[in-house]
Amino acid sequence: MASSMKIIFGLLTFVTVGMIIGALFQLAFIRRLEDSYGVPHWDNDKEAEHLRLGYVKPEVISWSPRIIVLHNFLSTEECDYLRAIARPRLHVSTVVDAKTGKGIKSDVRTSSGMFLSPAEKRYPMIQAIEKRISVFSQIPIENGELIQVLRYEKNQYYKPHHDYFSDTFNLKRGGQRIATMLMYLSDNVEGGETYFPMAGSGECSCGGKIVKGLSVKPNEGDAVLFWSMGLNGASDPNSIHGGCEVLGGEKWSATKWMRQGATS
């Protein structure tokens, strides 16, 4: 009897120790997963590098209108590169004339800007940015217009407007605009928020004023993806937005408008 009890006790001890060891191994495995979560492990993977996988952090800030902030969308080098390309070619920004569909100067928009050329679109760094925009927006690269780089200096702004067209002239090349990727290229800006007056139910800061709606502060490398077209396929009037007055510093941004079809 005593011998049998010793055997049973020994088996129980063996099983208990095995379970403890197994639990410790499982805990160590989970800890390794937790430690590695969110840290990019894409050595020698150019595709993942171009998409900045592990760095870009999406944050949905509104479902109606649809607005997503993509933190760390651009690298510091990419921001510097776009500003350097644009700086010597800046000119007074224009807005679309609703009657003719052509660009005209207006006090609605007081920034300066330029468009990248089709040749520059083939530069490796621009190609990487274009592909990243396409993947995160889920819109083909060929549906995008050329990237526009803008600079807003002190006291400059862009009054609330829609990105979709109200004329028929601009619809001939790719159809209606359906989404916009707005990328911030500079830091240390006072004011200069991107303002959505029809988003949210609270108040926000816009150029030093408290107003109704939702605003996004310009942080270098972040991007805002918002949709001019609703889920019903119609242009969304709630997508109205503007660039708040810059109170200090310079606000640099790059804009990519995307359409229903190929633009070329």
From TrEMBL:
<keyword id="KW-0560">Oxidoreductase</keyword>
<dbReference type="InterPro" id="IPR006620">
    <property type="entry name" value="Pro_4_hyd_alph"/>
</dbReference>
<keyword id="KW-0812">Transmembrane</keyword>
<keyword id="KW-0472">Membrane</keyword>
<protein>
    <recommendedName>
        <fullName>Fe2OG dioxygenase domain-containing protein</fullName>
    </recommendedName>
</protein>
<dbReference type="InterPro" id="IPR005123">
    <property type="entry name" value="Oxoglu/Fe-dep_dioxygenase_dom"/>
</dbReference>
<dbReference type="Pfam" id="PF13640">
    <property type="entry name" value="2OG-FeII_Oxy_3"/>
</dbReference>
<dbReference type="GO" id="GO:0031418">
    <property type="term" value="F:L-ascorbic acid binding"/>
</dbReference>
<dbReference type="GO" id="GO:0004656">
    <property type="term" value="F:procollagen-proline 4-dioxygenase activity"/>
</dbReference>
<dbReference type="GO" id="GO:0005789">
    <property type="term" value="C:endoplasmic reticulum membrane"/>
</dbReference>
<keyword id="KW-1133">Transmembrane helix</keyword>
<feature type="domain" description="Fe2OG dioxygenase">
    <location>
        <begin position="143"/>
        <end position="260"/>
    </location>
</feature>
<keyword id="KW-0479">Metal-binding</keyword>
<feature type="transmembrane region" description="Helical">
    <location>
        <begin position="7"/>
        <end position="29"/>
    </location>
</feature>
<keyword id="KW-0735">Signal-anchor</keyword>
<keyword id="KW-0223">Dioxygenase</keyword>
<dbReference type="InterPro" id="IPR045054">
    <property type="entry name" value="P4HA-like"/>
</dbReference>
<keyword id="KW-0408">Iron</keyword>
<dbReference type="GO" id="GO:0005506">
    <property type="term" value="F:iron ion binding"/>
</dbReference>
<dbReference type="InterPro" id="IPR044862">
    <property type="entry name" value="Pro_4_hyd_alph_FE2OG_OXY"/>
</dbReference>
